[in-house]
Amino acid sequence: MKRLLPMNQVRYLAGKIKMKTYFEFCEELRFDNNNWKSYFFAEVSALAYHDGTRAKRELSRIGFKTYKFLENDGAQCHIFSDKDNIVVAFRGTEPKQMSDIKADLLAFKRKSKTEGKVHLGFKLELRKLWSDIEALLQKSKNKQIWITGHSLGGAMATLCASRLEEKTPKLYTYGSPKVGGKDFCAGMDVEHYRFKNNNDVVPSVPLWLMGYRHQGKLQYINHHGNIRKLTTWQKLKDACRGRWAALKKFQLFDGIYDHNIVYYSNKLKGLIE
Questions:
Q1: Containing H/E element for 75?
Q2: Is the peptide bond before 206 cis (omega within 30 degrees of 0)?
């Protein structure tokens, strides 16, 4: 692969999402299998970057016949369901969407709808869709709620889940930035699996010094594609191995590559093959 400048890397990786084949191991829905769920919601988070037509077609193919696409001023999410489950999937940052860039940069903390303070930009993005999401979920009272998203979508998913605690949602996020301060994180009581792929740079922001913290149970994906619980020293060694492997492929900015949702999905697929 030839060397790519950072912006060209973003375009290259966006192309991988558009060309992706979805749900290769979803002939049977297995919500009782942890590895399958990790892979499935990564696939859903990747699909969330598409428009409603493509998403509806792919989801219908695996049994989700009820589908709704929500969009307002750049913020997007897909809501779909079967007889037992309803899924809310938020789209992540699109580099060409100025509203997304603005949301990422508005890193001032403001009071959350629940407890503590949260990232203003993420809060404003969720606000654009919240009334419609709330209305749709009211119609599905007896279904298990699953919420997911990648990057900015992961941040929005976290805020959405925090507002729905009484409905006991389950949350899967991939490459999500930090969302709120320590009081918000400590007060949020949701089953949350937070995935970070090797050297993915986005989970490092906003900075710890700004008062931001992560919420949820970290699922660290090492450079081999396995989920491991590592010490700080072990993570440093694994990061170096991942960096070296990227350099050998002329991937000079592996923090960008590791953030791509397709790489999350491909690694997690390896756990169920």
A1: strand 75-81
A2: yes
Q: pLDDT of 175-186, one tens digit each?
A: 999 999 999 999
pTM reported for the whole predicted model: 0.90
Average per-residue pLDDT for the chain: 89
Which CATH architecture does the domain made up of 6-269 adopt? 3-Layer(aba) Sandwich (3.40)
C-beta separation of 145 from 169 below 8 A: yes
Ordered by start, the domain boundaries in the chain are 6-269
Residues 6+ apart with CB under 8 A from 72: 128, 129, 132
DSSP 185-246: HHH---EEEEEEETT-SGGG-S-GGGT-B--SEEEEE-TTS-EE---HHHHHHHHHHHHHHH
Using alpha carbons only, give the angle 25, 30, 33 rounded to the nearest 5 degrees.
Answer: 100
